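Please check this.
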Amino acid sequence: MGESRARADGYEFPWRLEAPDNTRCNFNRFTQWKSANDEARYGFTTAIGTFSPKGDSPYKLQDMAGNVWEWCADWHDGRIGMKVIRGGSFSYPPTLYTVCLSLRL
């Protein structure tokens, strides 16, 4: 139900048409970008509600875009010390991530 709700209105982002920026979500911290407020450069995850109300969805959900990659329990095969991460950003090309789904029945 969550996916159908998220895509029901046809918008790519929870806040509809506006482009992502540092007032709506915590994203792309690996790129040097400038903003009107340099204090808004987050180098860490942010608390739920940090970007409310501008980043809220029409359903009043907060921080549904950006913020973190998911560190997984799996180690990267063949590379000692490297962990697998899942997630990503709208601004990263598909070559940087793989979408996986696994169900236990």
In short: The longest helix spans residues 2-7.
